[in-house]
């Protein structure tokens, strides 16, 4: 994947982040409920429109699919390459004012993400990854032109026994997550907001795993998957099967896991997921 395309995507993500952060700080957004009862704000819609226009200018020949601008299956069923965007991942965190929300964009090629960027506006932090490009973190709070920090999942000293750090949502039922894990392994939880940010915690080694139970869409995992994979981890369904993109009319994901150190026997950590 060409480095110039990654750099152009980084610029678009930062510009979108500035737009979203302005709405967040001014609190000048409205909130409505979508058909599935999930919230959407006027900031989500503004970010979606901005990203659609910017990506179409960048690559006029590549279609764009946004969570807030869905394309009918009859139109997208033959897409081999397209942009997949989540204008604000963590809308509830945006509304509640925690700051733990992100903008996520992935380039999907032949049903798999090959380039991804996740921008955390309140921290001015960009996570990025691409096939052949590795995974990096860039902290723009330190400089307008920061040096990329390579990311790699955490390597445990003892993959069979060391305490695992699990990223978990403040708004998820923690008991349900704990019930899916073996009780024989010591676990410590760290909490943050959006799916994308929790996946990035695994990619940069500040967490070892993340289990998502409940409804998500393909836009929640596209950018995260390529970043995590380029950092040495995996993003799989709860049944340890690959996640694919634009294979069916439905854009819904199964429950999924983000897994770090490949030497860990994750089947032993999450045995109940296969029951």
TrEMBL record:
- Asked if the record carries the keyword Cell inner membrane, the reply is yes
Q: What is this protein called?
A: 3'(2'),5'-bisphosphate nucleotidase CysQ
Q: Where in the cell is it found?
A: Cell inner membrane
Family per record:
Belongs to the inositol monophosphatase superfamily. CysQ family.
- Residues the entry annotates as binding substrate: 67, 88-91, 220
The cofactor required is: Mg(2+)
* Enzyme Commission numbers on file: 3.1.3.7
Name the lineage. Answer: Bacteria, Pseudomonadati, Pseudomonadota, Gammaproteobacteria, Alteromonadales
Reaction catalysis annotation: adenosine 3',5'-bisphosphate + H2O = AMP + phosphate
């Amino acid at each position: 994947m060409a480095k110039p395309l990654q750099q152009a995507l980084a610029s678009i993500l930062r510009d979108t982040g500035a737009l979203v952060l302005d709405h967040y700080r001014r609190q000048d957004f409205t909130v409505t409920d979508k058909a599935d009862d999930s919230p959407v704000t006027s900031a989500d819609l503004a970010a979606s429109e901005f990203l659609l226009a910017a990506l179409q200018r960048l690559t006029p020949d590549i279609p764009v699919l946004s969570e807030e601008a869905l394309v009918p299956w009859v139109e997208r069923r033959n897409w081999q390459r397209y942009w997949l965007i989540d204008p604000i991942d963590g809308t509830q965190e945006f509304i509640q004012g925690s700051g733990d929300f992100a903008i996520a964009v992935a380039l999907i090629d032949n049903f798999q993400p090959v380039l991804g960027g996740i921008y955390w506006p309140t921290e001015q932090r960009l996570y990025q990854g691409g096939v052949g490009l590795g995974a990096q973190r860039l902290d723009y709070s330190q400089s307008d032109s920061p040096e990329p920090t390579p990311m790699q999942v955490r390597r445990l000293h003892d993959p069979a026994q060391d305490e695992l750090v699990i990223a978990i949502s403040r708004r998820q039922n923690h008991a349900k997550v704990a019930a899916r894990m073996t009780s024989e392994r010591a676990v410590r939880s760290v909490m943050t907001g959006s799916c994308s940010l929790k996946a990035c915690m695994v990619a940069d080694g500040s967490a070892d795993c993340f289990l998502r139970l409940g409804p998500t869409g393909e836009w929640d995992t596209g950018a995260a998957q390529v970043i995590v994979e380029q950092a040495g981890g995996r993003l799989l369904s709860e049944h340890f099967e690959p996640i694919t993109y634009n294979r069916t009319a439905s854009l819904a994901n199964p429950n999924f896991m983000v897994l770090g150190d490949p030497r860990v026997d994750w089947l032993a950590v999450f045995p109940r997921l296969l029951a």
